[in-house]
Amino acid sequence: MRTPKERAKHAAYMRAYNAEPEHKIKKAARDKAYHTAHREVAYVANLAWREAHPEAWRGYQERYRERHREAIRERHRLWAAKERQEKTHHVRVRHRQNENIRRTRKTEAGGSFTTSDLERLWATQKGRCPYCGRFLSRASHHIDHRVPVSKGGSSYPSNLCLCCPACNMRKHTKVAVG
User: Fold this and answer.
1) Which of 87-91, 124-128, 145-149 shows the lowest mean pLDDT across its residues?
2) 81: domain range?
3) 3-state class of 144 per DSSP?
4) Residue 143 · residue 165 · CB < 8 Å
5) Which of 10, 44, 102, 129 is 20 to 30 A removed from 36 (C-alpha atoms)?
6) Residue 178: pLDDT over 60
7) Within a domain: residue 96?
8) 138: closest CA among 160, 156, 124, 119?
9) What is the pLDDT of residue 107?
C-alpha cells in the first residue's frame, strides 16, 4: 500500500508520462480500442449517469452549445440546405407524376408510372434527350408521352421518355418520330 506522498508522486509521474507525444498517441489508441470494444457498456453507464444527474447534464449541454455555437449553426445550415434540395427535387418529380396521372385519368387512357420507372428511363436513355441527343438536367427535364394522351396514348412507362424542355414544347401534341 502506498502512502499519500507516494501516490501523489506516482500521479505526477503518470501525468508527465502521458503528456509525452508518443505516449499520448498510444494512450489515445488504447482508449479508442477499449471504447470500441465496450461501446454498449459505456452507453448504459452514460445513460444511467444522465438520468441520475439531470441538472448537471443540462448544464453540460448548455456549456457545449455555448462553446460550439458557430459549428452547430453551420452543421444545421448545411443539413437544412441538403434537406431543402432533396425535398424540392422530390416534390417536383411527384408534381410531374401527378399531372400526368390527372391527364391520363381525364382521357381514360390508362397507365401509371413510379419514380423507379423514371429512374429506369434515365438509365436507359443514359441521361440524354431522345430527340436532340443533348444531356438532360436532373432538375429540369420533361416527362414526355411519345404518343400524346390527347391522341390516345397511355401513361405506361413504355409510352414515356425523358426529354429536354425545348424538344417537348416543340413536339407539343404530335406523335413522336424515332
Assistant:
1) 87-91
2) 73-171
3) strand
4) no
5) 10
6) no
7) yes
8) 119
9) 66
In the block, which residue shows the cell 412507362?
A: 157
Establish if 29 belongs to a structural domain.
Answer: no
Question: 19-77, pLDDT tens digit by residue?
Answer: 888 888 888 899 899 989 999 998 999 999 999 999 999 999 999 999 999 999 999 99
Domain count, the chain: 1
Residue 78 within any structural domain of the chain? yes
Q: Tell me: the pLDDT tens digits for 136-161? A: 888 788 888 888 877 878 888 888 89
Adjacent-strand bridge partners of 128? 135
Task: CATH number of the domain at 132, please.
Answer: 3.40.1800
What amino acid is encoded at 153 in this protein? Answer: G
Phi, psi (degrees; rounded to nearest 5) at 102: -60, -50
108 touches 148 (CB < 8 A)? no
Give the DSSP letter of residue 9: H
How far is residue 50's CA from residue 38's CA, in Å, rounded to a whole number? Answer: 18
Strand pairing partners for 135? 128
Kindly report the backbone phi and psi dihedral angles of residue 38, in degrees, each rounded to the nearest multiple of 5, phi listed first: -120, 35
What's the Cα-to-Cα distance from 141 to each of 45, 118, 169, 173, rounded to whole Å? 53, 11, 11, 17
- Residue 3 CA to residue 141 CA, distance in Å, equals 79
Write the CB contacts of 32 (distance below 8 Å, at least 6 apart in sequence): none
